[in-house]
Specification:
Chain B: This is ATP-dependent DNA helicase RecQ. The complex is a heterodimer. By secondary structure, chain A is mostly helical. Chain A has helices at 2-13, 19-26, 32-40, 55-67, 84-97, 105-108, 111-130, 143-156, 161-176, 181-189, 201-208, 212-231, 254-264, 269-276, 280-293, 305-317, 323-329, 336-352; strands at residues 71-73, 80-82. In chain B, the strands form three sheets. In chain B, strands 3-4-2-5-6-1-7 form a seven-stranded parallel beta sheet, covered by helices on one side. In chain B, strands 8-13-12-9-11-10 form a six-stranded parallel beta sheet, with helices on both faces. In chain B, strands 14-15 form a two-stranded antiparallel ribbon. In chain B, strand 10 (259-262), helix 11 (268-279) and strand 11 (285-288) form a beta-alpha-beta unit. The chains are: A mainly alpha, B alpha/beta. The complex binds adenosine-5'-diphosphate and zinc ion.
């Protein structure tokens, strides 16, 4: 799966950004730039789907793709292109995955992480309590998760462990049956109960003969599927209880969020920059980021209708996503900010469609 | 406190019916507000010596401990047994967690601190008003410059202890030669100490060294041993890659055994899982680096193999001490190849900062108006992020009074003298480390009883072994017949596994 995601990203970015943008995308460095790019290139699904990814591991994977001639490294050593061989390979593995591919980073990059921890710890806790065993070392160390699980248990314990076990069993079975046996197997192997401590990532990798990256992805993919099932009210009985309380799910950096607050208060770009002691350009970037999410954002303060339409038309004509190319087609008076804003506002109609696939 | 009352407390809080040797004497002295220095071998239950008093005394027991993971393990274990008034204050906490903890600091009966926390004025000021019933220095050998794990941070302990108006002190360590013991007591400056020194040697562990001539021979020997003795086993390596490599070699050759590796390069979650699997009898063999073992309480390990030997006898004794915790007949085997010495030698050579870097940085301090922070950043950059190198450098400059309160003062000593002083210190420490390594090597080449030779530095009297002694005296593989229980690892469909995990029918 990791290969599939990397090749897809490389294909869509088509050498217009460095490979590190892909790294930032997967590991969810929530910067304005990363978020804008993920929108621009239609890669929001992959946002934050692999947070523990290290730069070294990422580099190694890129080198491997290069070694296998799936991609070529451009002379700058920073950007890459997919090869024909890579393209064919991508189509082939995409076909294998498409029936059970659920990753949706834009929607679940926060929820999925939390939910998976809740689930792992809850199962460990529940099976221990079922065996009247109060003393154990929690498999998830973070305190927030421990408190969440405790709360859920306090709320639900009147149901009794037997009933809850059964519900969870049924819920998980419904979901897992839609996956290949190896994925379901790896998922079950990572659960910890009173009888059995879950397998570590590298042990699962060995057992199923897959890379440890793919252990992570196949696990997270199932978690995303559960999240989706919960969000769309499918007939799961207990797992929704473990779903994190809704937080700000939108693909928005915290900083842009603050800018949004001031915009709503009616402050101008300069004023916001002043209040927040940030550069004007930073605030402009925030506005672009906001425009991706709030399509109804009022842009009339930033350009005339004429300018808007001019940019829009140019975008429709041009193939390139390189801002420089776009800008050179337009009159001097149109700024980068204005171009980026139009892309963001009309993004999906004009450019969201991927014309590389 | 009457005899049986202490035992009742032990039973009620820990579920143990009797004390291990040493514990009771130490606890009694502690409860009588004596200052105590105790040497208890690894695994004999040092932590109980302050945990039980923490539960019995009014006020707070403070424990300074350098091992973050050990600290968090103990907090977890205590909480798991129902004692909740315990917390650990260390650098692993997030800002919020630390604030929360400081807010309610007076609600804890047992508070673990890492030594660097003692530097924070804020933390000290929060601790100062507490009623401190006992001040514990765990791993006290870290305070001795001649101890095998000297930590400059530890030198602050004395100061903190005085700042807190000298509550009763308990200094604990597992290994210390007599001169290191002397050094510890001196460094802590507590008058009138009760000393409790217990022997390091474990009479139930046989000591074996097997000399090999090729790497291949080493691997073969290892495979043979693992095949023959399906007991819970630890195999120590000096490199992460080797631990992982040999683990997969063993997996391929010994099919009926569950084998994994463990080292500091794994992420937290995986480390936790592997440890727990080992505890839970899902694994029989762990190939590990010295990152493993701290805080591990597995009682049924019966075989400790050194695929590589450590760079000093103290570490070796600690590592083999993980075997036979219930007194079972256990074996320590070191597989020794002539060239193995190169590995610890290489490691030693990178233990202290390069004198060239030291000189460069000193020159900057003396010739320009650099800030403490800048020097710190640049130094750490120059030594490839090796934090201990910086700590060493900082400590040395503090000793020479070039650093005072995180500010440079170049009036106390000339640049030339500072360079000479540092050079001397570095040389001396290398010399010391090399001597340690040589001791280890000498032991590997011993021509007499290994037990006597291993422990002579630490104690005068050596206990009579309960089983075979060593390969020089009487050890024969065929006479080692440990009883064992095999781990269960079943391969089955996920549907059945899920049913089992969640108790759904049979
Ligand atoms: N009196 C006792 N009876 C039985 N087990 C004990 C006793 N005291 C300690 N233990 C156990 O011995 C193990 C090792 O204790 P620990 O304090 O971690 O050792 P050390 O710090 O000396 O290496 C722990 O599992 C502890 O629960
Ligand atoms: Zn002997």
């Amino acid at each position: 799966m990791f290969e599939c995601i990397l090749l897809d990203s490389i294909m869509k970015i088509n050498g217009e950004r460095t490979v590190y943008n892909i790294f930032h995308l997967l590991s969810a460095k929530k910067s304005t730039q990363t978020i804008q790019d993920s929108n621009l290139f239609g890669l929001t699904n992959y946002f934050g789907v692999y947070k523990p990814l290290s730069r070294q591991a990422f580099n190694k994977e890129i080198r491997r793709l290069n070694h296998n001639q799936f991609i070529t490294l451009n002379i700058d050593q920073q950007t890459v292109h997919i090869t024909d061989k890579g393209h064919n390979y991508f189509n082939q593995i995409k076909e294998e995955h498409k029936h059970f591919f659920h990753l949706n980073g834009a929607e679940f990059h926060q929820t999925a992480d939390q939910f998976s921890k809740h689930l792992l710890l809850f199962i460990q806790t529940l099976t221990h309590l079922h065996q009247k065993n109060q003393r154990f070392i929690p498999i998830i160390e973070d305190i927030e998760t421990q408190q969440f699980v405790k709360k859920v248990w306090n709320k639900q314990q009147q149901l009794g462990t037997e009933k809850i076990l059964k519900s969870i069993y049924q819920d998980l079975t419904i979901i897992l049956e839609t996956f290949p046996d190896s994925h379901a197997g790896a998922f079950v192997d990572s659960l910890t109960s009173v009888k059995k401590v879950g397998l570590s990532r590298y042990q699962i990798a060995k057992k199923y003969n897959i890379t440890s990256h793919n252990v992570y992805f196949s696990f997270m993919n199932i978690i995303h599927a559960i999240c989706k099932a919960i969000e769309t009210n499918q007939s799961l009985t207990f797992l929704p209880q473990l779903y994190p309380v809704h937080k700000n799910q939108m693909l928005l950096s915290d900083s842009a969020n603050q800018t949004f607050y001031y915009l709503q208060q009616g402050l101008s770009i300069d004023e916001i920059a002043n209040v927040r002691t940030l550069r004007v350009n930073t605030i402009k970037d925030h506005i672009v980021e906001l425009a991706y999410i709030y399509k109804t954002l009022n842009w009339t303060g930033y350009m005339t209708e004429q300018q808007y339409l001019l940019v829009k038309d140019t975008l429709a004509k041009l193939q390139s996503k390189k801002l420089k190319d776009i800008k050179s087609e337009l009159p001097e008076s149109i700024s980068y900010f204005q171009i980026k804003l139009v892309i963001a506002l009309g993004g999906r109609e004009n450019l969201g469609e991927n014309h590389y696939v | 406190m009457s005899e049986s009352q202490l035992e009742q407390n032990l039973q009620a809080n820990f579920g143990f019916s009797t004390f291990r040797p040493g514990q009771k004497d130490i606890i009694e002295a502690v409860l009588n507000k004596r200052n105590v220095f105790a040497v208890l071998p690894t695994g004999t239950g040092k932590s109980l010596c302050y945990q039980l008093p923490a539960m019995m005394l009014s006020g707070t027991v403070i424990v300074v401990s350098p091992l973050l993971s050990l600290m968090t393990d103990q907090v977890k274990q205590l909480k798991a047994t129902g004692f909740k008034k315990v917390a650990a204050l260390n650098s692993m906490l997030s800002y919020q967690e630390r604030e929360m903890l400081l807010q309610q600091i007076d609600s804890y009966k047992l508070l673990y601190l890492s030594p660097e926390m003692l530097q924070s004025k804020r933390i000290i000021s929060r601790i100062k008003p507490l009623k401190i019933s006992l001040f514990v220095v765990d791993e006290a050998h870290c305070i001795s410059q001649w101890g095998h794990e000297f930590r400059p941070d530890y030198l602050r302990i004395k100061q903190t202890h005085q700042l807190l108006h000298k509550p009763p002190l308990l200094a604990l360590t597992a290994t210390a030669t007599p001169d290191v013991q002397q050094d510890i007591i001196q460094a802590l400056q507590v008058p009138d100490v009760d000393k409790f020194i217990y022997p390091m040697d474990k009479p139930n562990i046989s000591l074996v060294v097997e000399q090999v001539n090729h790497v291949k021979e080493k691997e073969d020997k290892l495979v043979e041993i693992i095949q023959h003795y399906p007991v819970p086993t630890l195999i120590y390596f000096s490199s992460r890659d080797e631990a992982a490599r040999v683990a997969s070699l063993l997996q391929a050759k010994v099919l009926d055994r569950n084998i994994a590796y463990y080292h500091g390069g794994l992420d937290n979650q995986d480390r936790l899982l592997i440890q727990q699997q080992f505890m839970n009898h899902q694994l029989d063999v762990i190939c590990c680096t010295n990152a493993f073992g701290m805080g591990i309480n597995k009682k049924d390990i019966q075989l400790v193999i050194h695929y590589h030997f450590p760079s000093q006898i103290e570490s070796f004794i600690q590592e083999i001490g993980r075997a036979g915790r219930n007194g079972q007949e256990s074996v320590s085997v070191t597989l020794y190849h002539e060239y193995d010495r190169i590995i610890p030698q290489r490691l030693l050579d990178t233990e202290l900062p390069d004198i060239v870097v030291v000189k460069q940085m000193l020159r900057q301090i003396y010739n320009s108006d650099v800030s403490y922070e800048d020097v710190k950043d640049e130094f750490i950059l120059k030594v490839n992020g090796m934090e201990p190198h910086w700590r060493f450098f900082r400590y040395q400059l503090e000793k020479l009074k070039i650093i005072e309160h995180e500010q440079f003062n170049i009036t106390k000593i000339s640049y030339q003298d500072a360079v000479i002083a540092l050079q001397k210190t570095i040389e001396k420490r290398y010399q010391y480390k090399y001597n340690k390594l040589n001791e280890m090597l000498q032991w590997l080449h011993t021509k007499g009883c290994r037990r006597k030779e291993l422990f002579t530095h630490f104690q005068e009297h050596i206990q009579e072994p309960t089983n075979m002694c060593c390969d020089y005296c009487d050890f024969q593989w065929e006479n080692w017949q440990p009883v064992f229980e095999q781990s269960n690892d079943t391969s089955q469909s996920w549907q059945i596994s899920l049913k089992e995990i969640l108790y759904q029918g049979e």
